[in-house]
Protein backbone atom coordinates (compact mmCIF):
# COMPACT_ATOMS: atom_id res chain seq x y z
CA UNK A 1 0.00 0.00 0.00
CA UNK A 2 1.37 3.44 -0.83
CA UNK A 3 2.58 5.99 1.66
CA UNK A 4 1.19 9.38 0.69
CA UNK A 5 1.94 12.77 2.23
CA UNK A 6 -0.55 15.62 2.48
CA UNK A 7 0.07 19.29 3.19
CA UNK A 8 -1.55 22.72 2.89
CA UNK A 9 0.12 25.76 1.33
CA UNK A 10 -0.60 29.50 1.28
CA UNK A 11 -3.31 31.23 3.30
CA UNK A 12 -5.95 29.12 5.00
CA UNK A 13 -9.53 28.82 3.79
CA UNK A 14 -12.61 27.31 5.41
CA UNK A 15 -12.82 23.69 4.22
CA UNK A 16 -9.13 22.68 4.45
CA UNK A 17 -9.89 20.26 7.27
CA UNK A 18 -12.83 18.85 5.33
CA UNK A 19 -10.45 18.00 2.45
CA UNK A 20 -8.00 16.35 4.86
CA UNK A 21 -10.85 14.37 6.43
CA UNK A 22 -12.09 13.16 3.03
CA UNK A 23 -8.60 12.07 1.95
CA UNK A 24 -8.08 10.25 5.26
CA UNK A 25 -11.47 8.52 5.24
CA UNK A 26 -11.15 7.37 1.64
CA UNK A 27 -7.39 6.97 1.17
CA UNK A 28 -6.43 5.58 4.59
CA UNK A 29 -9.81 4.25 5.77
CA UNK A 30 -10.97 2.50 2.61
CA UNK A 31 -7.95 2.03 0.37
CA UNK A 32 -5.46 1.21 3.13
CA UNK A 33 -2.90 3.95 2.39
CA UNK A 34 -0.49 5.13 5.00
CA UNK A 35 -1.17 8.86 5.13
CA UNK A 36 1.35 11.30 6.59
CA UNK A 37 0.33 14.88 7.35
CA UNK A 38 3.14 17.42 6.84
CA UNK A 39 3.02 20.50 9.04
CA UNK A 40 3.24 24.14 7.96
CA UNK A 41 3.32 23.54 4.24
CA UNK A 42 6.65 22.25 2.84
CA UNK A 43 8.43 23.64 5.92
CA UNK A 44 7.74 20.47 7.92
CA UNK A 45 10.17 18.57 5.67
CA UNK A 46 13.25 20.76 5.71
CA UNK A 47 14.81 19.69 9.01
CA UNK A 48 15.12 16.60 11.17
CA UNK A 49 13.06 15.88 13.19
CA UNK A 50 10.51 16.22 10.43
CA UNK A 51 7.28 17.81 11.56
CA UNK A 52 4.78 15.20 10.44
CA UNK A 53 1.84 13.26 11.86
CA UNK A 54 0.17 9.97 11.02
CA UNK A 55 -3.32 10.67 9.79
CA UNK A 56 -5.70 7.85 10.61
CA UNK A 57 -9.51 7.98 10.47
CA UNK A 58 -9.64 7.88 14.27
CA UNK A 59 -7.15 10.76 14.60
CA UNK A 60 -9.20 12.83 12.18
CA UNK A 61 -12.62 12.66 13.80
CA UNK A 62 -14.63 15.87 14.07
CA UNK A 63 -12.82 17.69 11.29
CA UNK A 64 -15.65 18.37 8.85
CA UNK A 65 -16.90 21.56 10.45
CA UNK A 66 -13.64 22.79 11.94
CA UNK A 67 -12.12 25.96 10.44
CA UNK A 68 -8.40 26.44 9.72
CA UNK A 69 -6.21 23.40 9.18
CA UNK A 70 -4.89 20.84 11.67
CA UNK A 71 -1.69 20.68 9.58
CA UNK A 72 -0.96 24.40 9.79
CA UNK A 73 -0.09 26.42 6.70
CA UNK A 74 2.03 29.36 5.64
CA UNK A 75 2.66 31.57 2.64
CA UNK A 76 6.38 31.54 3.53
CA UNK A 77 6.94 27.89 2.65
CA UNK A 78 8.48 28.17 -0.80
CA UNK A 79 11.27 25.53 -1.01
CA UNK A 80 12.84 27.47 -3.89
CA UNK A 81 12.95 30.47 -1.61
CA UNK A 82 12.05 33.27 -3.96
CA UNK A 83 12.17 35.56 -0.91
CA UNK A 84 15.96 35.66 -1.04
CA UNK A 85 17.11 32.59 0.92
CA UNK A 86 18.68 29.48 -0.55
CA UNK A 87 17.00 26.70 -2.52
CA UNK A 88 15.86 24.02 -0.06
CA UNK A 89 14.08 21.81 -2.55
CA UNK A 90 16.77 19.09 -2.41
CA UNK A 91 16.29 18.86 1.38
CA UNK A 92 12.59 18.50 0.79
CA UNK A 93 13.12 15.59 -1.60
CA UNK A 94 15.46 13.98 0.91
CA UNK A 95 12.82 14.40 3.64
CA UNK A 96 10.24 12.65 1.49
CA UNK A 97 12.67 9.78 0.81
CA UNK A 98 13.53 9.39 4.49
CA UNK A 99 9.84 9.21 5.39
CA UNK A 100 9.11 6.79 2.57
CA UNK A 101 6.57 9.17 1.05
CA UNK A 102 5.92 8.16 -2.56
CA UNK A 103 3.58 10.93 -3.55
CA UNK A 104 2.07 14.15 -2.23
CA UNK A 105 -1.40 15.63 -2.11
CA UNK A 106 -0.94 19.40 -1.99
CA UNK A 107 -3.87 21.63 -1.07
CA UNK A 108 -3.22 25.22 -2.15
CA UNK A 109 -3.84 28.21 -4.36
CA UNK A 110 -1.98 29.34 -7.46
CA UNK A 111 1.31 30.08 -5.61
CA UNK A 112 1.39 26.57 -4.10
CA UNK A 113 0.45 25.02 -7.45
CA UNK A 114 3.33 26.88 -9.14
CA UNK A 115 5.74 25.53 -6.52
CA UNK A 116 4.29 22.04 -7.04
CA UNK A 117 4.80 22.23 -10.79
CA UNK A 118 8.40 23.29 -10.26
CA UNK A 119 8.95 20.34 -7.91
CA UNK A 120 7.50 18.05 -10.58
CA UNK A 121 9.66 19.57 -13.35
CA UNK A 122 12.95 19.78 -11.43
CA UNK A 123 12.77 16.80 -9.08
CA UNK A 124 10.21 14.52 -10.74
CA UNK A 125 7.99 14.52 -7.65
CA UNK A 126 4.61 12.83 -7.79
CA UNK A 127 2.07 15.46 -6.81
CA UNK A 128 -1.70 15.74 -7.02
CA UNK A 129 -3.21 19.14 -6.21
CA UNK A 130 -6.43 20.31 -4.59
CA UNK A 131 -7.42 23.93 -5.36
CA UNK A 132 -8.05 26.25 -2.42
CA UNK A 133 -8.65 29.96 -2.01
CA UNK A 134 -11.35 32.25 -0.69
CA UNK A 135 -10.60 34.52 -3.68
CA UNK A 136 -12.09 32.10 -6.27
CA UNK A 137 -9.50 33.27 -8.79
CA UNK A 138 -8.37 29.88 -10.18
CA UNK A 139 -9.56 29.48 -13.74
CA UNK A 140 -9.22 25.69 -13.81
CA UNK A 141 -12.12 25.04 -11.46
CA UNK A 142 -15.70 26.33 -11.51
CA UNK A 143 -15.31 27.41 -7.90
CA UNK A 144 -12.87 26.97 -5.01
CA UNK A 145 -13.85 25.86 -1.51
CA UNK A 146 -13.70 28.61 1.09
CA UNK A 147 -15.11 31.15 -1.35
CA UNK A 148 -18.74 30.72 -0.36
CA UNK A 149 -17.86 30.89 3.35
CA UNK A 150 -16.11 34.21 2.71
CA UNK A 151 -19.09 35.47 0.68
CA UNK A 152 -21.49 34.50 3.47
CA UNK A 153 -19.30 36.30 6.00
CA UNK A 154 -19.25 39.46 3.86
CA UNK A 155 -23.00 39.22 3.21
CA UNK A 156 -23.67 38.93 6.92
CA UNK A 157 -21.47 42.00 7.49
CA UNK A 158 -23.50 43.95 4.90
CA UNK A 159 -26.77 42.89 6.59
CA UNK A 160 -25.45 44.19 9.90
CA UNK A 161 -24.15 47.41 8.37
CA UNK A 162 -27.50 47.93 6.64
CA UNK A 163 -29.45 48.47 9.86
CA UNK A 164 -26.94 50.81 11.44
CA UNK A 165 -26.45 52.76 8.17
CA UNK A 166 -30.23 53.24 7.94
CA UNK A 167 -30.49 54.33 11.60
CA UNK A 168 -27.85 57.04 11.22
CA UNK A 169 -28.35 58.03 7.58
CA UNK A 170 -24.70 57.19 6.96
CA UNK A 171 -22.62 55.97 4.06
CA UNK A 172 -21.01 52.75 5.23
CA UNK A 173 -18.13 51.24 3.30
CA UNK A 174 -17.11 47.58 3.70
CA UNK A 175 -13.69 46.47 2.42
CA UNK A 176 -13.39 42.77 1.60
CA UNK A 177 -10.56 40.48 0.47
CA UNK A 178 -10.05 38.90 -2.95
CA UNK A 179 -6.55 39.95 -4.01
CA UNK A 180 -6.75 41.18 -7.62
CA UNK A 181 -10.21 39.72 -8.25
CA UNK A 182 -13.59 41.11 -7.27
CA UNK A 183 -15.51 37.85 -6.81
CA UNK A 184 -16.16 38.17 -3.07
CA UNK A 185 -17.28 41.80 -3.41
CA UNK A 186 -19.49 41.02 -6.40
CA UNK A 187 -21.24 37.99 -4.91
CA UNK A 188 -21.65 39.53 -1.45
CA UNK A 189 -22.63 42.89 -2.92
CA UNK A 190 -25.52 41.36 -4.84
CA UNK A 191 -26.54 39.05 -1.99
CA UNK A 192 -26.27 41.75 0.68
CA UNK A 193 -28.00 44.48 -1.32
CA UNK A 194 -25.05 46.88 -1.61
CA UNK A 195 -25.77 50.11 -3.50
CA UNK A 196 -22.25 50.36 -4.90
CA UNK A 197 -19.84 47.49 -5.66
CA UNK A 198 -16.26 48.50 -6.33
CA UNK A 199 -14.07 45.79 -7.89
CA UNK A 200 -10.55 45.74 -9.40
CA UNK A 201 -11.88 44.81 -12.83
CA UNK A 202 -13.90 48.05 -13.11
CA UNK A 203 -11.81 51.09 -12.08
CA UNK A 204 -13.89 53.55 -10.07
CA UNK A 205 -14.66 57.25 -10.42
CA UNK A 206 -15.62 59.17 -7.29
CA UNK A 207 -18.19 61.25 -9.19
CA UNK A 208 -20.19 58.15 -10.15
CA UNK A 209 -20.21 56.79 -6.62
CA UNK A 210 -21.30 60.15 -5.25
CA UNK A 211 -24.00 60.46 -7.89
CA UNK A 212 -25.47 57.16 -6.71
CA UNK A 213 -25.45 58.31 -3.07
CA UNK A 214 -27.18 61.56 -4.06
CA UNK A 215 -29.75 59.79 -6.21
CA UNK A 216 -30.67 57.58 -3.28
CA UNK A 217 -31.01 60.62 -1.02
CA UNK A 218 -33.28 62.28 -3.58
CA UNK A 219 -35.38 59.08 -3.58
CA UNK A 220 -35.86 59.10 0.19
CA UNK A 221 -33.00 56.69 0.97
CA UNK A 222 -30.57 58.85 2.97
CA UNK A 223 -28.10 56.02 3.63
CA UNK A 224 -25.90 53.94 1.32
CA UNK A 225 -23.91 50.70 1.52
CA UNK A 226 -20.72 50.34 -0.48
CA UNK A 227 -18.61 47.19 -0.78
CA UNK A 228 -15.03 47.58 -1.97
CA UNK A 229 -12.69 44.76 -3.01
CA UNK A 230 -9.18 45.20 -1.60
CA UNK A 231 -7.66 45.26 -5.10
CA UNK A 232 -9.92 48.03 -6.44
CA UNK A 233 -8.28 51.04 -8.12
CA UNK A 234 -9.53 54.43 -9.25
CA UNK A 235 -9.58 55.14 -12.99
CA UNK A 236 -6.09 55.75 -14.36
CA UNK A 237 -4.30 53.53 -11.81
CA UNK A 238 -3.26 49.95 -12.41
CA UNK A 239 -1.88 48.67 -9.13
CA UNK A 240 -3.74 48.82 -5.81
CA UNK A 241 -1.35 50.20 -3.18
CA UNK A 242 -3.62 48.99 -0.34
CA UNK A 243 -6.23 50.78 1.74
CA UNK A 244 -8.75 50.47 -1.09
CA UNK A 245 -11.72 51.08 1.22
CA UNK A 246 -10.14 54.13 2.86
CA UNK A 247 -9.45 55.66 -0.55
CA UNK A 248 -13.12 55.35 -1.49
CA UNK A 249 -14.10 56.90 1.87
CA UNK A 250 -11.69 59.81 1.34
CA UNK A 251 -12.97 60.41 -2.17
CA UNK A 252 -16.60 60.52 -1.01
CA UNK A 253 -15.78 62.82 1.89
CA UNK A 254 -13.94 65.17 -0.44
CA UNK A 255 -17.05 65.55 -2.63
CA UNK A 256 -19.71 65.29 0.10
CA UNK A 257 -18.08 66.91 3.16
CA UNK A 258 -21.34 67.05 5.11
CA UNK A 259 -21.80 63.24 4.96
CA UNK A 260 -20.95 60.80 7.70
CA UNK A 261 -18.89 58.08 6.03
CA UNK A 262 -17.44 55.12 7.96
CA UNK A 263 -15.20 52.23 6.96
CA UNK A 264 -15.24 48.59 8.10
CA UNK A 265 -12.36 46.37 6.97
CA UNK A 266 -13.58 42.78 7.25
CA UNK A 267 -10.09 41.25 7.00
CA UNK A 268 -9.37 37.75 8.24
CA UNK A 269 -12.87 37.22 9.61
CA UNK A 270 -13.53 36.09 6.03
CA UNK A 271 -11.04 33.23 6.37
CA UNK A 272 -11.78 32.05 9.90
CA UNK A 273 -14.46 29.83 11.38
CA UNK A 274 -16.54 26.94 10.18
CA UNK A 275 -17.03 26.34 6.45
CA UNK A 276 -20.61 26.76 5.18
CA UNK A 277 -22.35 23.59 3.95
CA UNK A 278 -21.54 24.11 0.27
CA UNK A 279 -17.81 24.45 1.07
CA UNK A 280 -17.87 21.28 3.20
CA UNK A 281 -19.49 19.48 0.29
CA UNK A 282 -17.06 20.87 -2.30
CA UNK A 283 -14.02 20.22 -0.09
CA UNK A 284 -15.14 16.63 0.44
CA UNK A 285 -15.73 16.10 -3.29
CA UNK A 286 -12.33 17.57 -4.23
CA UNK A 287 -10.59 15.50 -1.55
CA UNK A 288 -12.15 12.30 -2.85
CA UNK A 289 -11.32 13.46 -6.39
CA UNK A 290 -7.66 13.87 -5.41
CA UNK A 291 -7.53 10.32 -4.00
CA UNK A 292 -9.05 9.03 -7.24
CA UNK A 293 -6.35 10.87 -9.24
CA UNK A 294 -3.63 9.24 -7.12
CA UNK A 295 -5.21 5.81 -7.51
CA UNK A 296 -5.38 6.30 -11.27
CA UNK A 297 -1.71 7.36 -11.37
CA UNK A 298 -2.71 10.77 -12.71
CA UNK A 299 0.21 12.56 -11.02
CA UNK A 300 0.70 16.20 -11.99
CA UNK A 301 -3.05 16.82 -12.02
CA UNK A 302 -5.27 18.82 -9.71
CA UNK A 303 -8.81 17.82 -8.78
CA UNK A 304 -11.29 20.44 -9.90
CA UNK A 305 -14.95 21.07 -10.57
CA UNK A 306 -15.72 21.30 -14.29
CA UNK A 307 -19.31 22.10 -15.27
CA UNK A 308 -20.46 20.87 -11.90
CA UNK A 309 -18.59 17.53 -12.05
CA UNK A 310 -15.38 16.56 -10.23
CA UNK A 311 -12.58 16.12 -12.73
CA UNK A 312 -8.82 16.50 -13.07
CA UNK A 313 -6.76 19.15 -14.84
CA UNK A 314 -3.01 19.29 -15.36
CA UNK A 315 -1.45 21.61 -12.76
CA UNK A 316 0.67 23.02 -15.60
CA UNK A 317 -2.51 24.16 -17.37
CA UNK A 318 -4.28 25.21 -14.18
CA UNK A 319 -1.66 27.87 -13.39
CA UNK A 320 -1.75 29.51 -16.81
CA UNK A 321 -4.61 31.91 -16.23
CA UNK A 322 -5.85 33.92 -13.31
CA UNK A 323 -9.64 34.22 -13.20
CA UNK A 324 -11.00 37.72 -12.80
CA UNK A 325 -14.48 39.14 -13.15
CA UNK A 326 -15.39 39.88 -16.75
CA UNK A 327 -17.10 43.30 -16.75
CA UNK A 328 -19.52 41.87 -19.35
CA UNK A 329 -20.30 38.88 -17.11
CA UNK A 330 -23.94 37.99 -16.53
CA UNK A 331 -23.44 38.63 -12.80
CA UNK A 332 -22.31 42.19 -13.47
CA UNK A 333 -25.34 42.67 -15.73
CA UNK A 334 -27.59 41.25 -13.03
CA UNK A 335 -26.11 43.66 -10.52
CA UNK A 336 -26.52 46.65 -12.83
CA UNK A 337 -30.07 45.55 -13.69
CA UNK A 338 -30.97 45.66 -10.01
CA UNK A 339 -29.61 49.16 -9.57
CA UNK A 340 -26.07 48.47 -8.34
CA UNK A 341 -23.51 51.09 -9.32
CA UNK A 342 -19.95 49.93 -10.02
CA UNK A 343 -18.40 53.38 -10.01
CA UNK A 344 -17.17 52.88 -13.57
O1 LIG B 1 -5.51 34.76 -1.03
C1 LIG B 1 -6.27 34.79 0.14
C2 LIG B 1 -6.12 36.11 0.85
O2 LIG B 1 -6.94 36.10 1.99
C3 LIG B 1 -6.39 37.33 -0.01
O3 LIG B 1 -7.77 37.57 -0.18
C4 LIG B 1 -5.67 38.39 0.74
O4 LIG B 1 -5.23 39.42 -0.12
C5 LIG B 1 -4.48 37.66 1.31
O5 LIG B 1 -4.79 36.29 1.28
C6 LIG B 1 -4.12 38.08 2.70
O6 LIG B 1 -2.95 37.42 3.05
P1 LIG B 1 -2.35 37.42 4.53
O7 LIG B 1 -3.22 36.52 5.35
O8 LIG B 1 -0.99 36.88 4.34
O9 LIG B 1 -2.40 38.83 5.02
Briefly characterize the structure.
It contains ten helices and eleven strands. The protein has 344 residues and is of the alpha/beta class.
Main traits of this protein?
single chain, 344 residues, alpha/beta, Rossmann fold, 2 domains, five-stranded mixed β-sheet, four-stranded parallel β-sheet, binds 6-O-phosphono-beta-D-fructofuranose
Topology:
Blueprint: E1 3-8, H1 16-30, E2 34-38, E3 52-54, H2 89-99, E4 103-108, H3 110-123, E5 127-131, H4 147-168, E6 171-176, H5 183-191, E7 196-198, H6 206-218, E8 224-229, H7 244-255, E9 261-265, H8 277-295, E10 301-306, E11 309-314, H9 315-318, H10 330-337
Parallel strand pairs: 1-2, 1-4, 4-5, 6-8, 6-9, 7-8
Antiparallel strand pairs: 2-3, 10-11
Helix pairs in contact: 1-8, 4-5, 5-10, 6-7
The chain binds 6-O-phosphono-beta-D-fructofuranose.
Number of domains: 2
CATH class assignment of the largest domain: Alpha Beta
What helical percentage do the residues reach?
Answer: 25-40%
**What name is given to the CATH topology of the largest domain?**
Rossmann fold
Ligand identities? 6-O-phosphono-beta-D-fructofuranose
Radius of gyration: 22 Å
Walk across the major sheet and give the strand order: 3-2-1-4-5
Class of secondary structure makeup: alpha/beta
**What is the string of SSEs from the N terminus onward?**
EHEEHEHEHEHEHEHEHEEHH
Give the CATH architecture of the largest domain: 3-Layer(aba) Sandwich
